[in-house]
Amino acid sequence: MDFERLRKRKSMAEKRTRIVQAIRDFFVRRGFLEVETPLLVPFAGQEPHLAPFRTVLLNEKGKSFLAHLITSPEYACKKLLAAGYEKIFTIAKCFRNGEPWDALHHPEFTMIEWYRAHADYREIMKESEALFCSLAKSVREQPRAESQFVKSKIRKNPDAQNPKTQQTIIS
Q1: Parallel, antiparallel or unpaired: strands 87-95 and 33-34
Q2: How many CB atoms lie under 10 A from the CB of residue 144?
Q3: Rounded to 5 degrees, what are φ and ψ at 125?
């Protein structure tokens, strides 16, 4: 990659930094604890449709062990939740083999996961909406007028609870 291409990507890196910081700020304001989870694990996740990257880990005596890069921080986060961490989030690198590698996909990517004990799906849905609204406000000084328009149409639509209708309205 030449330096000119790197220079052109600088504004995207700056935007990404603002977005990641806004995510952190959102969760910290709500009392969440940011956790770091392992990237290299002895056993791959149990998702049958995901292909983990495998590697060989050598210990100090030269003995080799099979290891995997995580496809998601989900298992580590759920262990923390089960251990009594009530509100956690992580922004983690993940790796998935056997996926497209093009302008829109990459086998290495960043994922956010968050968990709350004692919250039902409605609360998590509200929190997801609040996260996206918060990000829109922090990334843009003025949210788009169309966003408010779409939001009002969804709320007034009697079929708004139907995911197919929501998708049609939002698209």
Answers
A1: parallel
A2: 10
A3: -65, -45
- Strands 64-69 and 40-41 come out as antiparallel
**Ramachandran region, residue 98 (left: φ > 0; alpha: ψ -120 to 50; beta: rest):** left
User: Looking at residues 72-88, what average pLDDT do you find?
Assistant: 96
DSSP-derived letter for residue 97 is: B
Q: How far apart are CA 67 and CA 54, in angstroms?
A: 6
The DSSP secondary structure of 32-63, one letter per residue, reads PEE----SEESS--S-TT-B--EEEEE-TTS-
**Average per-residue pLDDT in the chain?**
84
Please choose, from the candidates 108, 72, 107, 64, the residue with its C-alpha nearest in 3D space to the C-alpha of residue 90. Answer: 72
| Alpha-carbon gap, residue 19 to 21, rounded angstroms | 5
Supply 80's token pair.
């923390």
Helix H or strand E encompassing 153: helix 145-156
Beta-carbon contacts of 84 under 8 Å, excluding residues fewer than 6 positions away, are none
